Amino acid sequence: MESNRLFILSQTPSLANHFISELRDVTVQKDSLRFRRNLERLGEVMAFKISETLPYAEQTIQTPLAQAQQTLLQEFPVLATVLRAGLPFHQGFLNYFDHSTSAFVGAYRVEGGRQLSVHLDYMATPHLEDKILILVDPMLATGKSLVLTYKDMLRFGTPKRIIIAAIIASPEGVAHVHEQIPEAELWLGALDDHLNEHAYIVPGLGDAGDLAFGEKNEKVQ
Description:
It catalyses: UMP + diphosphate = 5-phospho-alpha-D-ribose 1-diphosphate + uracil. The chain is of the alpha/beta class. It has a single domain, classed as Rossmann fold, CATH 3.40.50. Helix content is 30%, strand content 30%. It is built from 6 helices and 12 strands. Strands 1, 4, 5, 6, 7, 8, 9 and 10 form an 8-stranded mixed sheet that branches. A hairpin with a 5-residue loop joins strand 11 and strand 12. Helix 2 crosses helix 3. The longest helix has 20 residues. The chain is globular. The N and C termini lie far apart (44 Å).
């Protein structure tokens, strides 16, 4: 963690690097089931790492034989994701934070090079006031959709802690998030080189939503 605001999973050798490698590999990408599972596994890994920074308290548990002292999580975070690519990644977090409530946001970007615009058309979220909020999205490219999503979610209350988790990020996206949401902590699988002229991360992995669920119709009615 750098200044308690940026954590990059790939900087520490672990099996997570194998999962990220398979997500990037054009041959492995042909298996959409495995692609979704790797998104989910990275959500589980990141959830575990983040869980180490959350508040805990000692509690007494009654076993069939005696009482046992356990250090248990005091509060489960709210898990939020942007549809559709975020669903498997979100499921990985939910597998571990199994008592968490969830928020879902529908957002899409209108292509136009680096000047693309982002539109929100759906939001379902629990109360957020004084909660720990983890906003998960596999790809942090420009950062515009995540910033727009978070700022719109503030209608439902101000979290006491905001964590943004992404598998692949660009330096431009990280800078935009830090500028627009200075209180946010960023937890990344890997930080890549740059954005190309179409605002895709390089080397990246392509379109995570298409790879997970099939190519979408780009026409907007």
